[in-house]
Amino acid sequence: MANFFYRWFLSQRPINSEVSELETSLSIKKSIQSIKNYHWTWPSICHYGFMASIFLFTFITNPLPWIIKCLIYSTLILLCLIPLTGQFFFNALPIFTWLALYFTSSYFPAGKRPPITVKVLPAIETILYGDNLSDILATSTNAVFDIFAWIPYGLFHFGAPFVVAGILFIFGPPTILQGYAFAFGYMNLFGVIIQNVFPAAPPWYKILYGLESAHYGMHGSPGGLARIDTLLNIHLYTTAFENSSVIFGAFPSLHSGCATMEALFFSYCFPFLRPLFIFYVCWLWWSTMYLTHHYFVDLMAGSVLSYIIFQYTKYTQLPLVDTSLFCRWSYSNIEKYDMLKENPLGSFDGDDIENIPLSSLDNTRVLDLNDNNVLEFDLDDQASLTPNNIFDRTSYASRSSATSNISLEESPLPPRLNSNKRID
Question: Could you tell me whether strands 364-369 and 375-379 are parallel, antiparallel, or unpaired per DSSP bridges?
């Protein structure tokens, strides 16, 4: 087994490379020292402050016994402070924040919650697409279609996040799992917040109750998944959906959001398989409407939410992918986007000194003539960027650190011509 692992994963490992190493320390003092040395910025203050406020809100609102809640929160804090476990649990805090809010949502007082909309989504569906697509797809059902729809909606949706995380961890660049947890967690967190602020009835409600007003005392419905329970002689989906924490959470569709997020990350790391990932998203879209759990407008909203959060994560956290490398152990260094230096509005013509960005002049250390009497600026590029989280011990190379000497006579090649690293 050891020889297999070495032959497939460690044979291309650069000498003395430590970027793919995992933390093995159990010393909590090391984590406390990292907290003391962390350079706080406004984005990090907003990030940790927002999650802390959600955790505090759920701690107060959730009706579990106080001793149980204290035990759960203390265990999570301990797991985050131990370096060995903290490298996974601390980075997954956005996911835990989402789960805490989701499972507390059913305990919100009905009198303080907004009214449930029943007519808005089908009306928007008809206005935008000319008809109710979910009703059309669910008109003709059979066992083959039921199973074909059940596979992505009832199986892959729950297992795919773990499979994607494992594949990204092994075959993606180091620290990409951190970005995946951030994006996946925040997408679901914002989705649940929207669902609580704008509760909307899914298509199965219209089938069962028409356009009658809904209330929070109603139980949910498995929709078309009830046929799967009957086919397999189980009550799994009926029980789960009847007692869902967010029964009227049709908009946005987090099934669509999760599938889109998974497809975006896989496409980012494995662009040659992008058509396969697009097919998976379309497959899940069809299954959600066929099983009467979402309108098409819900699916679009979930995918747009995922895309926005992915783009933010891509330019602020994700490492650049080198498609010529096999796995995380093949990387010798980690490079990230430098948005300021890659800003197209900050580009300049090498022959015109007036077009040199002011940021370049501010960082100038040497202004001199080289041997060819060409004026050069020696920019003081940072060797590393600010860590994304408190316990991040990895140094990140600036995207344009390799082009620190800028000549007025010859400018560097465009980033797209430099190696195999993905920047699109």
Answer: antiparallel
